[in-house]
Amino acid sequence: MHVLSNPFAGTNSNGLRRTVSERKKLLGGGPFSIASPVLAFGLSLCTVLATAAPEYVDAVNYPANEQGWEAFYGLERRLVTDFDDICGDTYCEGEFSNLQALRYRCSVRQADSLIGECVWTFAGSNAAIDGATGKVTVDARTWACRTPLAPQTPIATFYSALSVARPILATLPATATTIHEGLSNCLN
């Protein structure tokens, strides 16, 4: 009968305590000799995954880290100003009259500068007082409004189209719509 030997067991098949040299022989030279190729492959795979560039990045990081900062945040500031100017006559007339623009974000594909999507987030609330108890009841909500972009819109074309005085009302490239119309559909 053939007895399989466990190199990690404290005793050998004769019931005697294994020596360090016996364990090394069974493992082929050391405790990590079997695991070394697997460990090396796993570490190299982690390195490749950690250094691989993402397919899409935030527009502020296109074409490289923070190189789109000024262009994108300049556009976002102008959009927020436009939103604040027209909110009272449009989006803010309903139940949530205190809508606040939170953040505008666009993803850009690194390989060809095409926009993946743009989303503008908003928050608003409505509060009521219970006259009998004094309790304040709050209805707080958030909205994530996608910009109605045409597929395959390059970021440079997007910036160019929105470089006008009122970017919220500018016609988006290759469409017949505006960010304002997209917001009307989302917020109402």
Describe this structure in words.
The chain has 188 residues and is α+β, with helices and mostly antiparallel strands. The chain folds into two domains: 1-52, no CATH class; 56-187, no CATH class. The chain contains five helices and four strands. The protein has helices spanning 20-27, 35-51, 69-87, 155-161, 179-187; strands spanning 56-58, 100-109, 115-129, 136-146. A hairpin with a 6-residue loop joins β3 (115-129) and β4. The termini are far apart.
Runs in which pLDDT lies below 50 for 5 or more consecutive residues are none
- Radius of gyration (Å): 31 Å
| Largest pleated sheet | 4 strands, antiparallel
Query: Strand portion, in percent?
Result: 15-25%
Task: Output mean pLDDT.
Answer: 85
N-C termini distance:
81 Å
Number of helices: 5
Instruction: Output the strand order for the largest sheet.
Output: 1-2-3-4
| Outline type | flat
Query: Percent range for helical residues?
Result: 25-40%
Can you tell me the number of structural domains?
2
* SSE ordering: HHEHEEEHH
SSE diagram, text form:
Blueprint: H1 20-27, H2 35-51, E1 56-58, H3 69-87, E2 100-109, E3 115-129, E4 136-146, H4 155-161, H5 179-187
Antiparallel strand pairs: 1-2, 2-3, 3-4
Features:
32% helix; flat; 188 residues; single chain; alpha+beta; four-stranded antiparallel sheet; 2 domains
Quick rundown:
The chain is of the alpha+beta class and 188 residues long. The protein is built from five helices and four strands, in the order H-H-E-H-E-E-E-H-H.
